Amino acid sequence: MKITITGTPGTGKTTVANILSKKLNLPLFNISELVKKEKLYIEFDSERNAFVVDPEKLREFFHNKKHFIAEGLVAHYIPSDILIILRVNPKKIPERLAERNYTEEKVRENEEAEKFAVIATEAIEKSKAKRILHIDTTKRKPEDVVNLILEGIGGKEVFEEVDWLE
């Protein structure tokens, strides 16, 4: 099974992916680390202090892999059986990103991105996944999110309405 997990920074991707990987006994790939290690980037963006991912190189890396979990901001670039989009109330973003040494500008940028569903919209529009799960993590513990994902993997429809603009 190929599972990809995406969402704005602070939605719980890494935490949820770690728990899910152990429960399903699937290898886990953190895309940020993978991009650096395998040189799957086009350039380094010094303004954002991040590598610009090369989508073709990323897809090529996963091309022959049959079973995995890949988590990261651009996980939706990878063809998968299930794409999981994690969401969180934008007001929680500063609190969740506090320990990451992000600049105030980067925190605000991520808060706005979540408010306007930038990652979620792109993921839904460009997804190569057979199924999409869309989950609000705001009031859930990571273990509860994983249990919901397992229900989705089992066939339950898991696509929650999320609109932070209302």
Question: Describe it for me?
Answer:
The chain has 166 residues and is of the alpha/beta class. It is built from 7 helices and 7 strands. The strands form 2 sheets. The protein has a 5-stranded parallel beta sheet, sandwiched between helices. It has a two-stranded antiparallel ribbon with strand order 3-4. GO terms for molecular function: AMP kinase activity; ATP binding; ATP hydrolysis activity. Its EC number is 2.7.4.3. It holds the Pfam family AAA_18.
Residue runs with pLDDT of under 50 for 5 or more positions? none
CATH uppermost class:
Alpha Beta
Main β-sheet, spatial strand arrangement: 2-5-1-6-7
CATH architecture: 3-Layer(aba) Sandwich
Category by helix and strand content: alpha/beta
In one word, what is the shape? globular
Please give the share of residues in helix.
Answer: 25-40%
Task: Give the number of domains.
Answer: 1
Count of helical regions:
7
If you average the pLDDT, what whole number results? 95
